[in-house]
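Why 2-oxoisovalerate:ferredoxin oxidoreductase, subunit alpha? Reviewers of the renewal asked for a concrete example.
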Amino acid sequence: MDSNNNINTNTTGNTNSKTNSNANKANNNINSNTNSNTNNNTTNTNDDTNTNSNSNSNNKFDNTVYETKVIKKPNSLYDEFSRKGESFTKVTHYCAGCGHGILHKLIGEAMDELEIQDRAVMISPVGCAVFGYYYFNCGNVQTAHGRAPAVGTGISRAEDNAIVMSYQGDGDLASIGLNETIQAANRGEKLAVFFVNNTVYGMTGGQMAPTTLIGEITVTSQSGRDPNFTGFPMHMCELLDNLKAPVFIERVSLADVKSIRKTKIAVKKALRIQKEGKGYCFIEVLSPCPTNLRQDAEGAEKFIKEQMEKEFPVKRFRDLSKEREKVERGSSDFSIESLDNIFNIDRENPIETKIDPEFKPVNIKIAGFGGQGVLSAGLTLAQAACNDGKNVSWYPSYGPEQRGGTSNCSVVISGDVIGSPVVDKCDVLIALNRLALEKFTPYIKDKGIILYDSRVGDFEIDKLDNFEVIKDKEIKLIPVPALDIANSLGNPKAFNTAIIGTLMEIGAIISEDAYKEGIKEIFSSKPKLIQLNIDVLEAGAKWMREHLDDYL
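Here is what the prediction returned.
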């Protein structure tokens, strides 16, 4: 035989002797060890055969157990990467010498060893590893740039048994996703975060990153990073170590074999903590980017060990895994019964919607300043229509101001299904100030009605800048002394209800009882205000009856 093979086999059996047989022929070296629990002598024999075997004189190997170790990809990584497409299904998309492939394998091995593959979810946002779902044989979610911690939080809280991993680069985590990272760590979310720090934006061509070293030349720092201009490198482990919630924080390296072995230990530790449900873990991995940094294997190793590790010391910052207990969060109850209780829905006596094709849709716009009761007036009207068996929608729009900002809402009341809650053209406009009156008057329909607070003063519709769009329309303008009506009953804040009362009197849109039931529903949490608002509603209707001939 001309072959030159080395085969190692471990055999364990119940034999009565320990025998080593060596045959050296045709350059074949086959070593076989047989172990027993006896203290018999060891003998060496040589023969002229091409195969060496260990056996006793009686050839008793019936109960022998052979243990074979197969070196292969972890089960948590796909054997073939079919999601890449038809070509190159055996190799990753990463550059030669990149650290991502090494870290992928370490994570996959740890998943196998901890037997968590069926519970694992890998989140890979925008970056070189965005195609992580090509390789990881587990649950996978791709997210927007920097949003992995937010998505991971949602998954972890919705699926309490899930083991959630976030795999992010320095441009993603330490830049656009910095706030999400800090907030998730501060909450102690059940996440294992793998932060790949290679000091550059790898995917986009080697631009300066938050972790770029002082003086390091990149595409966007041609003279080297200047701290006076772009600040100092971001130290994420040190930053997160100031927070109380994280369980495990460590910085590791992929510089050489020894460093990789230590990285494997940290990776497995972080995933074990997730398996135990104890909380947030952060692993920063110093990784090579030979393509963008224009380094060979030796240069990449030297750069990590002599420059990166000087700026970013490799160390374990925190390990509270023994002290921390499993994180137990209460589960949310989204059952129909629970939601009905929150929103006071009575399913035993539901309000039946009546389909009435003859009742044409009425589009109402209510507008004013924030704090004037614009939205609550719309809600009262919508609830009243609902109680009356109509189809109804309520659509609010308001600025960020708590008081004084613009605010409006659209209410559509219909005898049939409502296609859209948006009111572009309104049949009724209720304006609580001049700004709202001038803004929305041009959107009134022909034969429309405008009810406005009389404190606005004189309003000449033909003086509007865009009067041309409504000059041929027949519009009813009714100034309502709403504040005076409300004040007369000692309830000035209910002036918005006074205007709703005038609307109740003008048109046969909704019954009076439905209006009153609407007030009871809206103010159910403030029972003292119910009768006060009903009184103001009736007073507004009374004022309108007394002045119908003046305006209609």
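DSSP finds 17 helices and 20 strands in the chain. This is the kind of structural detail the renewal will allow us to pursue systematically.
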